[in-house]
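Q: Sequence in, structure out?
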Amino acid sequence: MTEEAPGNPVREQPAVRPLMLTVLCVLTFAGSGLNILSGLAIGAFFDQFVQIAAGFAETYNLPGMEMITEGSPAFFLVSAVFYAGSVTGAILMWRLQRIGFHVYTISQILLLIAPMYFFRLPGPSWPDLLFAGLFIILYGVHIRIMK
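A: Exactly. Output:
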């Protein structure tokens, strides 16, 4: 039993990161990290990417590819920045800092809005909305242990 005394201060037990939060962070590191790299690569080499993507779309009859090939490199570069925000939020949540949840959530909302702006879409895609929402909810479950 430890008592608080001038020579023996009581140490606060460090918070332990739950396994689910660890898994969510690792998934975010992997998914968003790869999206940062691809966004930067496609944004930097957009003309070459369009040629390759157009060839794939024609050869394999991929629906929706024309939307990407008619876009701009700015979309991919901006998306890379927003994915970097997601990774930053996950790093902060890994360290159990509550601000990370807010950084992550704002980044995910911006990632949902970006295609609507760049491609003039009427709304976000349902799979993107459900996936982002699920991660935000699962991260939100752990916000009570973050400081």
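The radius of gyration is 20 Å.
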